[in-house]
Amino acid sequence: MTQDPGRAAPAAATPPGEGLSNEETLAAYRVMVLARATDERCLTLQRQGRIGFYVPASGQEAAQIGAARALHAEDWVFPAYRELGVALARGVPLEALFHQFIGNSGDVLKGRQMPNHYGYREFRFVVASSPIGTQITQAVGAALAARRRKDPVVTIAFFGDGATSSNDFHAGLNFAGVYRAPTIFFCQNNQWAISLPREKQTHSATLAEKANAYGFPGVVVDGTDLFAVHRAVSDARRRAASGQGPTLIEAQVYRFGPHSTSDDPRRYRADTEVAHWKEMDPIKRAKELLIGAGVLDEARDTALWEEARAQVSRALESAEKTSPVEPGTLFDDVFAEPTPRLVEERAEFDRLLAEGVIKP
Amino acid sequence: MTQDPGRAAPAAATPPGEGLSNEETLAAYRVMVLARATDERCLTLQRQGRIGFYVPASGQEAAQIGAARALHAEDWVFPAYRELGVALARGVPLEALFHQFIGNSGDVLKGRQMPNHYGYREFRFVVASSPIGTQITQAVGAALAARRRKDPVVTIAFFGDGATSSNDFHAGLNFAGVYRAPTIFFCQNNQWAISLPREKQTHSATLAEKANAYGFPGVVVDGTDLFAVHRAVSDARRRAASGQGPTLIEAQVYRFGPHSTSDDPRRYRADTEVAHWKEMDPIKRAKELLIGAGVLDEARDTALWEEARAQVSRALESAEKTSPVEPGTLFDDVFAEPTPRLVEERAEFDRLLAEGVIKP
Amino acid sequence: MTELTLVQAVNRGLQQAMRDDGDVLVLGEDVGLNGGVFRATEGLLKEFGEERVLDTPLSETGIIGTAIGMALYGLKPVAEIQFLDFIYPAFDQIVSELAKFRYRSGGQYPCHVVIRSPYGGGIKGGLYHSQSTEAYFCHTAGLKVVIPSTPADAKGLLLTAIHDEDPVMFLEPKRIYRSVTGEVPDGDERVPFGRARLVREGTDVSVFAYGAMIPVVTEAANALAAEGISSEVIDLRTLVPLDEAAILASVEKTGRAVVVHEAARFCGFGGELAALLAEKAFFSLKAPVTRVTGYDTPFPYALENLYLPNVERVSHAVRTTARAG
Amino acid sequence: MTELTLVQAVNRGLQQAMRDDGDVLVLGEDVGLNGGVFRATEGLLKEFGEERVLDTPLSETGIIGTAIGMALYGLKPVAEIQFLDFIYPAFDQIVSELAKFRYRSGGQYPCHVVIRSPYGGGIKGGLYHSQSTEAYFCHTAGLKVVIPSTPADAKGLLLTAIHDEDPVMFLEPKRIYRSVTGEVPDGDERVPFGRARLVREGTDVSVFAYGAMIPVVTEAANALAAEGISSEVIDLRTLVPLDEAAILASVEKTGRAVVVHEAARFCGFGGELAALLAEKAFFSLKAPVTRVTGYDTPFPYALENLYLPNVERVSHAVRTTARAG
Ligand SMILES: Cc1ncc(C[n+]2csc(CCOP(=O)(O)OP(=O)(O)O)c2C)c(N)n1
Ligand SMILES: Cc1ncc(C[n+]2csc(CCOP(=O)(O)OP(=O)(O)O)c2C)c(N)n1
Ligand SMILES: [Mg+2]
Ligand SMILES: [Mg+2]
After folding, report:
1. What's the rounded Cα separation, in Å, for the pair C257 and D281?
2. Which residue among D75, D96, D110 sits closest to B134, beta carbon to beta carbon?
3. Domain B22-323 belongs to what topology?
4. Does A105 touch chain C (CB under 8 A)?
5. Architecture, CATH, for domain C2-184
6. What is the pLDDT of residues C198-222, one digit of tens each?
7. CA of B132 to the centre of ligand 2 (A)
């Protein structure tokens, strides 16, 4: 049942117009640029010590934004930690993200998580965690719940090539196959799981063909091609919504940057490999197509980049001006109502604060 | 890469002579009969309260004994809890098994485990546990260790259809594919995982084809056919031993009895289904072939059964005469040397025993 | 009121909740057609259909991960793990996800799953059908841990669990699934979390226990009464949240405490209880707190009866504690 | 002797063992080419090759299951779990298999795997790069649990672990991987299990801790000395086996005890220690045992510094304990 197995060829990108209007394409491109600008700025901020950690998404924008734009507003997204493009395409305000990166009182998550591990119920973007793969089974459960409620909702799990080795990949795809869950499994094969190359992650020819083991289709798509991704996800969404069950999509992309700001990719991969993939920079490809279609020119592109960078600066500025989280919030949200023990621990904590033993 | 997908047809059994001489076949048949006789007796013993629990293997003898006889003495077996035929074919004395079923002082395992959860280092038969699937990754590790030691050893993991959904199935097959481990994954698809039928366990057409996801071959074999199984495992062993990596074998069989003595299969399956499969009773099939080949006749067969039943009675009798395990052994084998805390707990225990507070 | 066994009470609790609330569903291995290996889900498939009673593939990871996704969406899944010994493939989902969803999202994503699981020894189940590892869950912030010991509590606490807003580990003492019977209220009668149950009043020693140890401890207390030792028996019922007030009040009265559980001693729940008393009732205690527990070995098969606390061991410990100091 | 950081000492311990014994191998995520995300396995791939330094797929289940198989066969695998927070996919293999192999086989199948894993907070790692869940492993019969706090102990205890015959959880306090340096013996110098380390002698209060809490506790003790409070600081080093003799001897001397750890309080290791003292040093204790620990919440990000015991909280607790009673 696998379609298009083998490596995505670095062929000419699919022209716009198939599924995405010029206007929509431009909107998508704008988000891609915003994501890239955010990434670039955040890497600097981390080096300056202004944010504690960062996971860059550069190179994966077409996959993320192409996928996100094929979804409906009511669909549920189960992300990993690298889905900046998806968050932005879903409409999550940049400022909310910067509050999260800093972990201040403006952060909806109340400063509880490391940068990039965000979630916004309002945008049906479930809160990410670090353990690899756990969102995959959860996406299946939410899809079954939506079906039970008769809601026209599809769920999508985002994960990496490394996550295909996880327990939840196996369980999630198996459950989805058995129950024909309206779920899309969107694997961004960015060729690396930290220092482990795709070939050492698993011995199958493609990741997409793993879907066979669960009795549903898997497709490989060129993840640097906004339109190809958009089409693949639209098709999968249609299948899911019409009761035909799940699809596994392997979007072949490349992580341009380090795994995270704690990582030094020169220890394990060659610059030439990076350079090779940079030729297929999804932003460059989209730009060329838009220019070809007459929707964009160099001047407008420059303006668009400036606008994106300004937007990033504004969001950052606002976030940096926001006060830190209140100490007492440490004890909130463990349960709906604190247990007596938590009440007591908080009282002890407040006493220590009041006596100056600990300082905010 | 999957060979022979689809259900094994209830075709005529493979004739002897291919891989197994008449003599070897008769020897295998003898073990099959012994296994069946043991099973039948143990179900009665459990009802009589003479053993606490039992997991029958009836219906799976050809798969188990055909597989075991394709292995070499130095190979390592990683069983689940239903591998009576494998244990007997490896040479484990029936008496050792009865000691284990009773859990007495003659039990090499010191009465530590439920019936059927045995293991005998001497026979390279690793000690079984209950959690489903865990032996699968372990078999891969042992295979890599043997390779590192340059030992001509292949490992084989036995597991059921239900176990294909386990975490260890996914991890074990993936690691084996990546490292090309000399391991055979032998799945006895007995159509049921307690009350869950094979079709609801996973949506793939066969279990064997799951091997594709890990980049190595999977084969389906008629597990009621001693010779077919023997050939499939011999082939897989040859591949493994010659550095060609792992194989997944799906032996299609049927569990004639209940899942265990705690189970009532009439709650979930039809008698007609059982009857259908009993037509392919592996013992009946082997017997017919042996008679056809002139190696066996009804009289010899009857004698063989009587001999098996007598052997069972002797083993049982000896086991029932053996003393119970010594109370103090409760504290042995937690570690190579007991920790001070265990020494202290044991002293407390001995005191309670001596004072008559607790009684053996 | 109806006279029920403990496992029947669990069954009625599930049925009640499913009748009252269309969002409640059950999932797990063999819970449908088979009615659960202990028959706790008997009849539910027939009454509520396959959409609300899901027979799952053999994957605890899948069961709990799926249940979490359902709960995030707004349903009230009740997952059955066939034996607590088999929960570990789901441990990552429980510890990393279920327990932390509300917290890590700043309250945006409550994640209300009830995990029911038979636990404990006494059924000749050996290493893998006997363990009591409640301490793992008690130590995991974000989980509630509930253990009934009577049919009425089984139903009443289960109903509270199902309608709670937080994840609940609902551990069922399988050894007394059928040996204990009692009157159970009909209808949606809930037993609140965080309140211990006074099983027997006493003045000399406080004995704390839960689950299948309650009948053992009660029998011991009755026997000791004949010797003139008056034990107060308290069934903790919910380990998280814990009824510290009841615990401390009892020890303030008796000045002596024994805690009994099946689990291994080292870092077990009894350690927490003893520590709590050492912290908060230090000046009331007239004797060391005594722990009567399983030993720090894996759970045995043949010697199960010597591993588990029994009436004699409990009596001995209570007697010793009553006389100490 | 060589001056090393703690993580360098781990690296030298691995190198030493691998040089001395061809059965020792390491496996884990990013342990090869990358040298480990904390560089603990730096240089090993180059020296020992791919057969003894295995970069594994992303599966902790696979890592530990494979390591167990290797150990059964007779090798001495040292598995790295990248962060202790990511060990849960392997929890079934650890708890059900590794810990119980020797026991369930009646001693036929010893199963000697060393699991190394960086653990603990203080690096701004949020919920999933910070947790201290040593209590789970301490409560699991059949596992040894070792936590070094100095470079010399890191190497010496690791060598003991690798040449031990039982499974060892070797938890490395990543917060002090590089901040703590010290002289480390060259060669195969082993530090025995089951012996606590006396960090500082004292007479007023005994302070028990391990891992990254040792520098915190030591600093507090030094500060308190200026106030005239003499604290005895004991680094437990191996939680299983535990050096109860040293613990009891210290408390018999001081009559007062404080236990400090990063993990959540409820059912944490501190509970066991307090219970132990309540049982065995009851009549020596002049004041309640005090626990200074993380709170019973998931591990936070922004407020990490308020969650973790620090010098001020420890000093405050020791001071209070010294004066109580
Ligand atoms: C269960 C678990 N094990 C290990 C890690 C450490 N870790 C973080 S990211 C990562 C690699 C993930 O690779 P992939 O799934 O390809 O996603 P990518 O980072 O490439 O987007 C690893 C091993 C983790 N987060 N969770
Ligand atoms: C992890 C785990 N979950 C659940 C169980 C309970 N259980 C015991 S056997 C079994 C079914 C196994 O089916 P299969 O793998 O097909 O083997 P079979 O019993 O048919 O030989 C289940 C669910 C278990 N032992 N381990
Ligand atoms: Mg990747
Ligand atoms: Mg089966």
Report:
1. 16
2. D96
3. Rossmann fold (3.40.50)
4. no
5. 3-Layer(aba) Sandwich (3.40)
6. 999 999 999 999 999 999 999 999 9
7. 5
